[in-house]
Amino acid sequence: MQEHCSVPECTEEGIASIDGRVLCRTHFLTSSYQRLEAISGQIHRQEFQERQADAAGRFLEGCMHDAADIACAVGAPSNLERARVLDVLLWASELHSRLRRGPRMPARISVLLRSGVPEGSWEEQTETQLLSRHGAQLRCRHELRVDERLTCVRLDNGRQAEARVAWIARKGAEGLEVGIEFLTDKNFWGLSLDGSISLTDRERGSGNSARSNFSADSGEL
């Protein structure tokens, strides 16, 4: 027997689930928009990425699955409701792509950050603090905005990729702590799935100068 929507006084049939609550199409859309709005407002924060990314990822994956089912179901929604369902699906997909993914490892690699903003281009040499297959955490002395585009150049081997600023945390006199996400290279550091740097990638640098740029809290990576 089909379950009814769990929202009090709603008699519609339940067709989706959020946080274990069975919801009808209308309340699924309402609840989804509320959660998506909340995630969108926090996703750029380091604390959110570190503590809530897994839970947010599970919600977004379920939201995308349910939205796709609703859009393709027999007795599909009206054109207006279909547009809202597809909006939820696309928004959830976009937010899911911005979540920090994969293993992260402490590592110091010298890089050059380059900004070409119309207000004034700049370059800054810095070092990474954490690496992932999709980005890095590092320090920056220049002012940045979330979603700003940068070019990241590895100084050990010259490899470069376009990146976006995913989050920013101010560290007083030390400048900004920044999370960047790569847009044009999905494994810029040559990390394997377990988080280690492949030998092939390490050998792309030139001799001892390349080796000297790879270091971690526990020694050479």
Question: Would you give an account of this structure?
Answer:
The N and C termini lie far apart (57 Å). It is built from 6 helices and 9 strands. A hairpin with a 6-residue loop joins strand 4 (110-115) and strand 5 (122-132). The strands form 2 sheets. A 6-stranded antiparallel beta barrel has the order 4-5-6-9-8-7. The protein has a two-stranded antiparallel sheet with strand order 1-2. It has helices at 25-42, 46-51, 53-72, 79-97, 199-202, 207-212; strands at 16-18, 21-23, 105-106, 110-115, 122-132, 135-140, 149-154, 160-170, 176-182. Helix 1 runs antiparallel to helix 3, helix 1 packs parallel to helix 4 and helix 3 runs antiparallel to helix 4 (79-97). The chain is an alpha+beta fold. It has 2 domains: 16-97; 105-212, Thrombin, subunit H.
Short description:
Helix content is 33%, strand content 25%.
Features:
221 residues; alpha+beta; 2 domains; two-stranded antiparallel sheet; 9 strands; disordered C terminus
Write the layout of secondary structure elements.
Layout: E1 16-18, E2 21-23, H1 25-42, H2 46-51, H3 53-72, H4 79-97, E3 105-106, E4 110-115, E5 122-132, E6 135-140, E7 149-154, E8 160-170, E9 176-182, H5 199-202, H6 207-212
Antiparallel strand pairs: 1-2, 3-5, 4-5, 4-7, 5-6, 6-9, 7-8, 8-9
Helix pairs in contact: 1-3, 1-4, 3-4
